[in-house]
Write a structure and sequence with these properties.
Shape: globular
Distance between the termini: 37 Å
Number of helices: 2
Structural class: mainly alpha
Strand content: 5-15%
Largest sheet: 2 strands, antiparallel
Strand order of the largest sheet: 1-2
């Protein structure tokens, strides 16, 4: 799946009320930052997304001129 397909699939899942946690890495280092929240760790992100989906009706997601940029692997930082 390309990055653009992933973003579009996320939006589709959001609109359909489907689980969003599968779009995040299962790691304690996962962080999701929203307008009024900061969720830490995969379990925290999954729980927060479930609660958000449970308490929100009629999701509206629109993207105009969606642009997704795919970059190569991140360079490793120099260690000493």
């Amino acid at each position: 799946m390309t990055p653009e397909e992933t973003v579009r699939a996320y939006y589709d899942a959001l609109r359909a009320g489907e689980p969003l946690a599968p779009f995040f890495v299962e790691s304690p280092a996962t962080v999701k930052v929203g307008i009024g929240e900061r969720l830490v760790g995969y379990a925290g992100v999954a729980n927060g997304l479930r609660e958000q989906t449970r308490t929100t009706d009629d999701w509206g997601v629109e993207s105009h001129d969606l642009r997704v940029v795919e970059r190569g692997p991140r360079p490793r930082s120099a260690t000493r």
